[in-house]
UniProtKB/TrEMBL annotation:
It comes from the Bacteria. Keywords: Cell membrane, Membrane, Protein transport, Translocation, Transmembrane, Transmembrane helix, Transport. One of its GO terms (biological process) is protein transport. This is Preprotein translocase subunit YajC. Belongs to the YajC family. The lineage of its organism: Bacteria, Bacillati, Actinomycetota, Actinomycetes, Mycobacteriales. Residues 105-114 have a biased composition (Basic and acidic residues). It comes from Rhodococcus triatomae. Residues 90-114 are annotated as: Disordered.
């Protein structure tokens, strides 16, 4: 009975400590992303809006979301930078997907026409 109270305190403090530690890592990751933003980067906001950075200021970022449409957002809403793949890589991916699809179609039995 004497050990119950210290074990209860320990059981409550350990998950709290681990949660705080994980939150600090995520905040550091977000701060690094905010510092690495550059004009011309393609980004996604927390609202799911894709855009290209046109101008950066201390607290705001101007995103081009369509030709001639530029909106101003807080830098904090930038969730991630979208990495575009090269045309050659896209063709390789596209070719492998098609060949896999063709293989799947070839392995299916053909329906009999009566």
């Amino acid at each position: 009975m004497d050990l119950l109270f210290p074990l209860l305190i320990l059981a409550l403090l350990v998950p709290m400590f681990l949660g705080i530690r994980r939150q600090k890592k995520e905040m550091a990751k977000t701060a690094a992303l905010q510092d690495s933003l550059q004009i011309g980067d393609r980004v996604v906001t927390t609202a799911g809006l894709y855009g290209i950075i046109e101008e950066l200021e201390d607290d705001t970022v101007d995103l081009r979301i369509a030709p001639g449409v530029i909106t101003t957002w807080s830098r904090l809403v930038i969730r991630e930078v979208v990495v575009d793949i090269d045309d050659e890589e896209y063709e390789e991916l596209d070719g492998s997907e098609v060949s896999a699809q063709e293989q799947a179609e070839d392995s299916r039995p053909s329906p009999d026409k009566n």
